[in-house]
Design a protein that fits this description.
alpha/beta; five-stranded parallel β-sheet; 5 helices; 20% strand
C-alpha cells in the first residue's frame, strides 16, 4: 500500500510531528511505502535549518532530517507557507534578495500542485 502524509501542525505546539514520525516508521516496517510527506501551514517550521531546541529536548527538524536520510522518503514544504514564515531555499533567497537560505537539506519547497499529486498518487493520505 502507498501512503502519503500531510502534516499541518506546528512542531512546537503539539506532539503531532512525533506521532507522524512513529506512523511513518511503522508503515515502512510493515512493508508499505511512503510516496511523500507534505508539510503545510505551521508544519513547515520543521523545515527551518536554523531551529535549535533547548538542551535536552529533541528537535522535529533533526528527527525529520534523520528519517529522510535513513529512508530516502522525500520531504516537501509548501512554498507559500514557508515564505510566509521566513523559510527559503537558495533560489527564493536570490529571488527576494535575502542574505541566505535556511531550508533544511532534506526538504524541498513545492507548490500546492504537489499536494494534488500526493492525493492522487497514494492509496491512503493520512493527516497529522
Amino acid at each position: 500500500m502507498k501512503f502519503s502524509l500531510l502534516i499541518t501542525s506546528s512542531p512546537f505546539e503539539t506532539t503531532q510531528h512525533e506521532s507522524a514520525l512513529r506512523f511513518a516508521k511503522a508503515v515502512l516496517a510493515d512493508g508499505h511505502t511512503i510516496q511523500r510527506i507534505f508539510f503545510y501551514k505551521d508544519a513547515v517550521l520543521a523545515a527551518n535549518a536554523m531551529t535549535t531546541p533547548p538542551q535536552g529536548q529533541t528537535s522535529a527538524f533533526q528527527d525529520w532530517q534523520n528519517f529522510s536520510k535513513q529512508t530516502g522518503v522525500t520531504l516537501h514544504a509548501c512554498i507559500a507557507n514557508s515564505l510566509r514564515r521566513g523559510i527559503v531555499d537558495s533560489t527564493e533567497a536570490e529571488r527576494y534578495q535575502l542574505t541566505g537560505s535556511n531550508l533544511a537539506s532534506a526538504f524541498s519547497l513545492v507548490g500546492l500542485g504537489e499536494m494534488t499529486e500526493v492525493m492522487s498518487d497514494s492509496d491512503k493520505l493520512v493527516q497529522f
